[in-house]
Amino acid sequence: MIGGYKESDATSLKLTFFQRVFGVVWIGTSIFFFLYLLANPSNLLIADANTPVDYKKEHTLFFNECKSCHTLYPPYLLPKQSWVKMMDNLENHFGDDASLEASDKEFIKDYLVQNAAENSTKESAFKILKSIKDEEIIAITKTPYWKRRHSEIDKSIFTSKEIAAASNCKACHQNIEQGLLNDKDIKIPEIAKG
What is the rounded distance in angstroms from the CA atom of residue 58 to the CA atom of residue 25? Predict the structure, then answer.
């Protein structure tokens, strides 16, 4: 059996013409679909199920008030109790006075609570909830999940002039203001990479 063949008295199996054609067609089809999947990431089998959210259309007041000062963070990035705590203390909003009319504040707070992490099917929402447990963290960048997810990024990147702060999510997650946080969309600015 040195040559890889074992001598036997049995007759060798031979593929029929149909079996050969079927094998060639099967291999050709498999290669075609593999190449199709690689060339078309939005195909039916592996398409991204996350769809952009038009926050301006969905809740104009939330869009206008929050985006006027900072990145528009999707509500699913914090749990209900965090949004309530933040909205009930807008006069000290991360060192700034972001006070609103009482009715506007309640309207935005209701929207944030309705769309908070507990009510989301997004992967980030589940992981943030699991990491926070019962803590009332109001800064997304202070959540254990955020810290763990960004732990391998050099701290100097967050202070580079292109990013400026860890809270500037939009610098690397260009679709965050449409509620999208997909790994495939992360683009760390070139200069920040060093």
Answer: 49
Give strand pairing partners of 93: 96
In this structure, the number of other CB atoms found within 10 A of the CB of residue 82 comes to 24
Are both 161 and 96 inside the same structural domain? yes
pLDDT, tens digit (0-9, with 9 covering 90-100), for 129-147: 999 988 889 999 999 999 9
CA-wise closest residue to 163 among 124, 193, 141, 132: 193
Task: Please report whether residue 82 resides in a domain.
Answer: yes
The strand pairing partners of 186, in sequence order, are 173
For the chain, how many structural domains are there in total? 2
The pLDDT tens digits of the residues spanning 143-162 come to 999 999 999 988 888 888 88
Q: How many helices (H) and strands (E) does the chain have?
A: 9, 0
Picking from 118, 111, 151, the residue whose alpha carbon sits closest to that of residue 132 is 118
Pair of tokens at residue 148:
């763990």
118, 186: one domain: yes
> Do 41 and 62 share a domain, yes or no?
no
Tokens 């705590």 locate to 85
Structure tokens at 84: 């309530």
Q: How far is CA 27 from the centre of its chain?
A: 35
13: which DSSP letter?
P
| Identity of residue 10 | A
Same domain flag for 99 and 186:
yes
